[in-house]
Amino acid sequence: xxxxxxxxxxxxxxxxxxxxxxxxxxxxxxxxxxxxxxxxxxxxxxxxxxxxxxxxxxxxxxxxxxxxxxxxxxxxxxxxxxxxxxxxxxxxxxxxxxxxxxxxxxxxx
Length: 109
What we know:
Blueprint: H1 3-11, E1 17-19, E2 25-27, H2 28-54, E3 62-64, H3 66-80, E4 96-98, H4 100-108
Antiparallel strand pairs: 1-2, 3-4
């Protein structure tokens, strides 16, 4: 098995692994997160179109953990790029009143 596939296998929790038809091992949590991001991307396109047509951009302000937002993005990047070392040093326990999806877009960009 190629080394990048072994890295993906070790990244998935043992009790949450699924096998695809290609023999790739992907964590179910990661798969659900990625599907959610894809859904959010479609929503972003619709938001952009609405902003262009109507002139506003809907924001959903809630108390959010900046560490949780950035950790999710780093986890996704670590699976996508197993050959790279990503170090996250974030210990903010103070929630932010923000739109987590928009902050995620900013960090990913």
